[in-house]
Structure formats: structure tokens, C-alpha cells
Design a protein that fits this description.
The chain has five helices and six strands. It is of the alpha+beta class.
Length: about 160
């Protein structure tokens, strides 16, 4: 009703002010949402490096059928990801450095996705092999109760070639 009354305004300047105001509110919300996604990705990055499942439990939506893909491997469900992948890497890898950069965020209502460049460096304790891979990571998000939750991830990387 209020919008109908506003659009009854006959002047172009009044309509421009309204349209600009609505666009600004949408832009401000988009910036806040993008910042939230980037902060979540930063927490996940730190969780991997520290072999800490806490950020995963906080920011991932645990649901039947959840799957997380990394370099051809798959974890089914949040517990599988945390207990069989994230936390054990603390014992398996020394000096894990994960870098997620050039993060792009995209939104469609309560669905969002982010794409990032990924670089991984570590020493495999078992055989002293050095890992240095680069590739890409995709995160899918859903807004649940006003907060963004990761519902799927897919990471793909390959060894950096030495020149």
C-alpha cells in the first residue's frame, strides 16, 4: 500500500530518490552478505590449517545427504568431513598452509555461492613428501534462520609445476 502511494507521486525527482534509496538498501545488504560469506570462508580456512572442526560445525548445515568433495575424494555428512578429514590432517600434515584468495560471491535470494582460488602447501609426515597444489574451491550456501550456512563444497587442485 505504501509503495502504491509513493508511486502516485508525480515528480520524477521523487521517484528517483525512492529508486536510489531502495537500490542503496539492497546494495548495503549485499555487501553485508558478501562480508559474512568471506568471514565464514576465512574461519573454514583457519579450521583446516589448525585441524579444528569447530568452524565447520558452526558454519556448515548438517543434513542428510550432505557431501563435500576434495580432489576426487568425498566426505558424506559433516561428521565424516570433520572426524575423518579435517581433524586427522593435523597429525598427517606438517605446516599446512591453505590460502583461499580472489573470492567471488554471488547471491539469489536465500541461496549463494562463492568461488575462490586455492593454494595448499604442507609436508606429509609419513613420507616427508612436500605438497604444493593450486586450484579452485566452490562453496554453496543457504540462508537459515538469518545466517548463511555452507551446504556443499567442491575443491579441485593439482600440483604446481616446477619450471
Amino acid at each position: 500500500m505504501i509503495i502504491n502511494k509513493i508511486f502516485e507521486w508525480r515528480t520524477a525527482p521523487a521517484r528517483c530518490v525512492l529508486i536510489f534509496g531502495l537500490a542503496f538498501v539492497g546494495y548495503a545488504n549485499a555487501n553485508e552478505d558478501a562480508e559474512e560469506l568471506i568471514a565464514i570462508i576465512g574461519a573454514i580456512e583457519a579450521g583446516w590449517e589448525q585441524a579444528d572442526g569447530t568452524p565447520f560445525r558452526k558454519h556448515f548445515l548438517d543434513f542428510p545427504g550432505a557431501r563435500y568433495i576434495e580432489s576426487g575424494g568425498q566426505n558424506e555428512g559433516l561428521a565424516d568431513l570433520v572426524e575423518h578429514h579435517v581433524e586427522p590432517e593435523g597429525d598427517a600434515l606438517e605446516g599446512l598452509e591453505l590460502s583461499l584468495t580472489n573470492i567471488e560471491t554471488h547471491f539469489e535470494a536465500d541461496f549463494a555461492w562463492a568461488i575462490a582460488d586455492v593454494e595448499v602447501k604442507a609436508l606429509v609426515r609419513r613420507d616427508q613428501r612436500h605438497i604444493h597444489n593450486r586450484g579452485y574451491q566452490t562453496f554453496l550456501f543457504r540462508r537459515v534462520d538469518g545466517h548463511w550456512k555452507v551446504v556443499h563444497t567442491h575443491s579441485s587442485s593439482r600440483p604446481v609445476k616446477k619450471n
